[in-house]
Amino acid sequence: MTELAGKRILLGLTGGIAAYKAGELARLFVRSGADVQVVMTRAACGFVTPATMQALSGKPVYTDMWDGRIPNNMGHIELSRDRDLIVVAPASADFMAKLANGLADDLLSALCLARRSPLAVAPAMNVEMWNHPATQRNAAQLRADGVAILGPASGDQACGETGMGRMLEAAEIYAEAVRALSPKVLEGKRVLVTAGPTYEPIDTVRGITNQSSGKMGYAVAQAAAEAGAQVTLVSGRTALPTPAAVERVDVVTAREMHDAVMARVKRTDVFIAVAAVADYHVVNARGQKIKRSAGNPKIELAPNPDILGAVAAGKSAPFCVGFAAETENLKAYAQDKRHQKGIPLLAANLAQEAFGRDDNALTLFDDAGEHVLARAPKIVLARQLVAHIARMLPKAR
After folding, report:
1. In what order do the strands lie in the sheet with 85-91?
2. Minimal CA–CA distance to 389: which of 241, 275, 273?
3. Is residue 381 within a helix (H) or strand (E), and if so which, with residue range?
4. Model confidence over 312-339: pLDDT tens digits?
5. By Cβ atoms counted within 10 A, which residue in 57, 252, 336, 361 is the most buried?
6. How far is it, in rounded angstroms, from Cα 210 to Cα 204?
7. What confidence category does residue 397 fall into, taking pLDDT thresholds of 50, 70 and 90?
């Protein structure tokens, strides 16, 4: 994990039981190569000790506006000036109220007011506190001021109640930080991605599908969102969580995927067809389970629509990227598919080396030739693919 290598993050903690999650968040930041400086309010120290956060961040923790270790006793200036991002997690209702109204009576609130870097806050509070009109007004004001509000989520709370106000998990906040700090090479672009398998019913309990896990397509959607694009993900059945800042449209069959794509393609700048779409559907699918005692069923198949081909052939087609999963003759089959579809870029891999795995190896084919992406986690390959797409896109005049 090196997404944040060389990045400088200030992690702020305010008072709340969710402060225990900040330890895991600090660990994720550090493991990813970030320089992490922790600042805590007095209330936060009642839940997690500075010693704990120092051990996890590898740096001294600051809690006091008048800390003599800071040059000129100006911690609110010195601690924030070299940071690429400030993340406050958890952010209490009280702290959000301070930020919204420009109050700065402690080190963390003062440095947030004096900052030059982007600020993100992860709210954590009781459901009634989150829903209170005052908190909602403050959240709206913070958004208007350019502060990113991460969450909250709905779920069980330490007080025993259930509802909105639960702080996002550390991995979710980490993903948002990666997105915030990623180069925005697709800023302003609308990207449509297909992912996962399609499922073609034979009867009410059986169907035709394939081994696709959806992991590559979801990684591509995540990478495009990190790059600043507005991303819509049309997904077959998977168990994967939706990437942050991505709109997801769930489908089952290839024809449903086709309809969902064609309904959105006119508003799309880049179409990336990663889904493993079934080539055929069952014409005589049964409305009830076929009994074994009925003998060998006769299944009649008909071709499914060619989604990528239809998009590429359309008037004012978006920039189209295809995927090919082959079992042999990778280069020949991939080049042939790219020319048949009439698309500028195709990513290919050997199916037996990719399905269900968290890593992959890709070869990109375009008019300039072949570009080999060595085996790596799928999210790493997805970011490399997105960067390649960005370089190929026509430059705005």
Report:
1. 35-40, 8-13, 85-91, 119-123, 148-149
2. 273
3. helix 378-392
4. 999 889 999 999 887 778 888 888 899 9
5. 57
6. 18
7. very low
Q: How distant is the alpha carbon of residue 324 from its chain centre?
A: 23
Give the chain's largest Cα–Cα span.
87
- Global confidence as pTM: 0.82
Q: Are 257 and 273 in contact (CB under 8 A)?
A: no
Cα–Cα distance, 168 to 266 (Å, whole number):
34
> What CATH number should be reported for the domain holding residue 322?
3.40.50.10300
159 is catalytic: yes
Question: Residue 39 is part of a domain; what is its CATH number?
Answer: 3.40.50.1950
Q: Are residues 198 and 144 in the same domain?
A: no
- Band of residue 352 on the pLDDT scale cut at 50, 70, 90: low
Together in a domain, 133 and 195: no
Residue 352's domain comprises: 190-392
Q: How many structural domains comprise the chain?
A: 2
How far, in Å, CA of 272 to CA of 343, rounded? 11
Model pLDDT for residues 18-27, shown as the tens digit of each residue: 999 999 999 9
Residues 77 and 166 in one domain: yes
pLDDT tens readout for residues 176-206 = 999 999 999 999 999 999 999 999 999 998 9
Q: Are residues 49 and 175 in the same domain?
A: yes
Pairing of strands 359-366, 345-350: antiparallel
Cα torsion through 108, 114, 118, 120, rounded to 10:
30
Judge if 251 and 369 occupy the same domain. yes
Q: Is residue 369 part of a domain?
A: yes
Co-location of 238 and 140 in the same domain: no
171, 207: one domain: no
**Per DSSP, which regions of 230-329 are E strands?**
230-235, 246-250, 270-273, 280-282, 301-303, 319-326
Query: One of 45, 112, 159, 320 is an active-site residue; which one?
Result: 159
Claim to verify: residue 129 and residue 152 sit in the same structural domain: yes
DSSP state string for 84-140: SEEEEEEE-HHHHHHHHHT---SHHHHHHHS--S-EEEEE---HHHHHSHHHHHHHH
